[in-house]
Specification:
The protein is mostly helical. Helix content is about 75%, strand content about 0%. The chain has helices at about 10-50, 55-60, 65-105, 120-145, 150-155, 170-175. α1 (about 10-50) packs parallel to α4 (about 120-145) and α3 (about 65-105) packs antiparallel against α4 (about 120-145). The chain is flat.
């Protein structure tokens, strides 16, 4: 005779480990997505601000304050962040759980999915995303708005070129045709 309790059953134990792995993944995924979103927003807003340097210089020369100019970009970033948070929240609550439950449904017999709304988590993640996007926009704008309008209206000077390693070997470099 062998006596097993529920925890000794391989199916029960495997399901418990899978649930624990999914719980751990659910704790890491939002952090990963927020970090990626902040980096993308920082890159996007930096490029946007660099492309509109001339316009920023003209607005400064016309008498607009730095605060008014910065508000344009902050409003744009916050609007995009709020819409992005909404799309992310909806997909995170509906699409991902449905896909995961279908995958687990292949291995296990599961009850129907009951979706709940963790309001606190939703609000905190949307706030973190929006605030970090606004902060990234502020950093991108602040860098350019401290310069004089005349400098902003001119195109930005290209970065200084670097020498390649091959240029240091004259025997090879002089033989290359350009």
């Amino acid at each position: 005779w062998n006596v097993y309790n529920r925890n000794d059953t391989p199916g029960y134990k495997g399901y418990g480990e899978s649930a624990q792995n999914m719980r751990n993944l659910a704790n890491v995924f939002p952090i990963f997505f927020i970090v990626v979103a902040v980096l993308i927003c920082l890159t996007t807003m930096t490029r946007l601000v660099e492309e509109e340097r001339t316009q920023m210089g003209i607005l400064l020369a016309l008498g607009y304050t730095e605060k008014n100019i910065m508000m344009k970009y902050v409003l744009y970033a916050s609007t995009a962040s709020i819409f992005g948070s909404g799309i992310g929240i909806l997909s995170g609550i509906y699409i991902f759980p449905m896909a995961i439950i279908k995958a687990y449904g292949i291995m296990y017999t599961l009850p129907p999915l009951k979706i709940t709304f963790p309001v606190f988590t939703i609000v905190i993640s949307a706030l973190i995303g929006t605030v970090s996007t606004i902060f990234a926009t502020y950093l991108a704008c602040r860098k350019d708005l401290v310069t004089k309008p005349a400098q902003l209206m001119r195109p930005k000077a290209p970065k200084a070129g670097r020498r390649v390693f091959l240029e240091k070997i004259p025997a090879i470099w002089s033989k290359l045709s350009f």
